[in-house]
Write a structure and sequence with these properties.
Elements: H1 4-20, H2 22-26, E1 34-37, H3 42-50, H4 58-66, E2 67-72, E3 79-81, H5 84-92, E4 98-101, E5 104-114, E6 119-123, E7 130-133, E8 137-139, E9 142-144, E10 151-155, H6 158-173
Parallel strand pairs: 4-9
Antiparallel strand pairs: 1-2, 2-3, 3-5, 4-5, 5-6, 6-7, 7-10, 8-9
Length: 181
């Protein structure tokens, strides 16, 4: 698993670097952009709220125990991961709860979003891939992408996703290309 304290520092530094130039670039000050340290209970509460019928990957539990929330509304199009209460509410409300992928229905957790309607989802099985889903219909709790362009496999698992997320922000902050997440 990723060293989450180091990951939090990397993401915070990159977002601060990006926001230093925000006023000059956009003509107004940025909002609140933060990586909120967890209380050590968020992931455990997520598991409890979802109950025994839904698996929560240990990497997700660990993440939300260490990081309560990532809220970066002014970084690129915006990035939001969690909080765990939001993840649990989305799953409980079946908005969405499954992903139709290659003719199969996979149970998922919506772990985050961006500012433009994109969802970040991961299967409930440990080491499930993380997907970026753009503008797909939700029918009876099932996320139903109609084209391959709407589904992008970002990483082989949650740890790889976190690494991609941090690397993309660091590259973007250093003047590189738009983040790939």
């Amino acid at each position: 698993m990723t060293d989450l304290a180091a990951w939090s520092d990397r993401v915070s530094r990159s977002s601060e670097q990006l926001l230093e130039r925000f006023d000059k670039r956009y003509g107004y000050p940025p909002g609140v952009n933060v990586v909120v340290t967890g209380t050590g209970q968020g992931g455990s509460q997520l598991s409890q709220e979802l109950g025994p019928c839904t698996q929560v990957p240990p990497s997700i539990v660990e993440f939300f125990n260490v990081i309560e929330e990532v809220s970066l509304p002014d970084v690129w199009n915006g990035y939001f991961l969690g909080p765990a209460t939001w993840v649990a509410a989305k799953h409980a409300d079946r908005y969405p709860r499954w992903l139709e992928l290659g003719g199969q229905r996979v149970e998922i957790l919506v772990i985050g979003s961006d500012g433009g309607g994109t969802l970040y989802v991961v299967g409930v099985e440990e080491d499930s891939p993380v997907f970026r889903i753009e503008e797909a219909a939700i029918e009876s709790g099932v996320l139903c992408p109609t084209t391959d362009r709407q589904v992008q496999r970002l990483a082989a698992n949650f740890s790889a996703f976190l690494e991609l997320f941090a690397n993309s922000l660091e590259s973007y902050a250093a003047g590189g290309i738009t983040p790939s997440v």
